[in-house]
Design brief:
Blueprint lengths: L35 H58 L4 H84 L1
Helix pairs in contact: 1-2
């Protein structure tokens, strides 16, 4: 059972369950007693899950940034290659015939394209590998979160069972007092 913080009630100044929370004939209310250590444990678990979630988000942002930087450098590289080709054509056109220039550029383009294809494939592998690790981490975090929720639920059930046993004991004591007074 998941509880909101507004659903938690404190004991009164005498460390007894307030009358507004005790069972009476007209209102059946149940409550769970949680000590400060258990509240601190729950707070620590929540903080830990929050940090794990933030780490996951930071990793995803880093991957996106790396992809954007790669695309920007690729675009810049293409622009510089075009400018270089234009300059080479101008320079070579004064020395060599046009046919020779085209052949040189075709050979150069094929080599550059194969090199770029290898780089792109390597970058794709790296990004895919990083994404698979992040997906694995996310799955592990979800699994861990589910385990913590199950554990919290179990602890809350145990607390509720203890509370019910405590209330039965109090009722039994009250009945014994009542019968001893009569």
């Amino acid at each position: 059972m998941v509880l909101n913080s507004s659903q938690f009630q404190c004991l009164d100044e005498n460390k007894y369950i307030p009358l507004s929370l005790t069972n009476d004939e007209n209102h059946e209310k149940s409550c769970i007693l949680i000590n400060n250590d258990q509240i601190e444990n729950i707070k620590h678990r929540i903080e830990k899950l929050k940090i794990e979630s933030e780490d996951k988000n930071d990793g995803s942002k880093q991957i996106v940034t790396a992809i954007n930087e790669y695309n920007l450098s690729k675009n810049n590289s293409e622009r510089y290659q075009e400018k270089f080709k234009e300059m080479m054509v101008l320079k070579l056109s004064t020395i060599l015939p046009t046919h020779s220039i085209n052949t040189l550029f075709e050979e150069s383009n094929e080599q550059e394209l194969s090199k770029l294809e290898k780089e792109i494939k390597q970058k794709e592998k790296d990004v895919t590998k990083a994404l698979s690790y992040k997906i694995k981490d996310i799955k592990e975090l979800k699994k861990h979160k589910l385990e913590l929720m199950k554990e919290n639920t179990s602890l809350l059930k145990q607390l509720n069972d203890k509370k019910e046993a405590y209330q039965k004991l109090i009722s039994k004591i009250d009945k014994e007092k009542e019968t001893s007074l009569n």
